[in-house]
Amino acid sequence: MRGIAPSGPRVGIFWFFNRRLIADCSLLGSAEAYGEHLTHARSHFDFWNNLQHLGTVPREIEYEEPPRGRVVFNTRTERFTLYADRCILTRKSLVNQILRTMHLPTSQTNVRMDGHYLCSRCLKSLHGLGGDF
């Protein structure tokens, strides 16, 4: 998908940490093919490590602890999917912020919870351990 303007739709990764959205994304023209999807090339692990090195996030917090998610684009259906942790998806204003940050057309975007993106708080509640994040 060449020729997309800088304000065009993006795919990428994100977290909700310390009451703010942290995102790293790519325009579709720069996205990496993964099967029938286009996805952001950088992983949560690598980007979080970079943020730790820069001092943006604490070194003692692992990348999978805060609520996180990913946006991908299905080249067959021409639809975006925003996958995220329940802690993100239950906050409509946060979902809308992600949609705006990634310049996603709401009519072309599916929003789904994904078990891969369970934060430490959700994992604890899933196992009946309680706890706050």
Description:
The protein has one domain. Helices cover 24% and strands 30% of the residues. The termini are far apart. It is globular, with a radius of gyration of 15 Å. It has helices at 44-54, 86-89, 92-101, 120-126, and strands at residues 10-17, 20-27, 32-34, 37-39, 68-74, 79-84, 109-113. Strand 1 (10-17) and strand 2 form a beta hairpin. It contains four helices and seven strands, in the order ββββαββααβα. By secondary structure, the chain is an alpha+beta fold. Strands 1, 2, 3, 4, 5, 6 and 7 form a seven-stranded mixed β-sheet that branches.
* Uncertain residue ranges: 1-5, 129-133
How many DSSP H or I helices? 4
Structural domains: how many? 1
Largest sheet properties: 7 strands, mixed
Shape verdict:
globular
> How much of the sequence is in beta strands?
25-35%
User: What oligomeric state do the depicted chains represent?
Assistant: single chain
Backbone CA Rg: 15 Å
Give the mean pLDDT: 89
Helix content: 10-25%
Structural class: alpha+beta
Order of helices and strands: EEEEHEEHHEH
Ends distance? 39 Å
Question: Got a strand count?
Answer: 7
Give the key terms:
seven-stranded mixed sheet, disordered C terminus
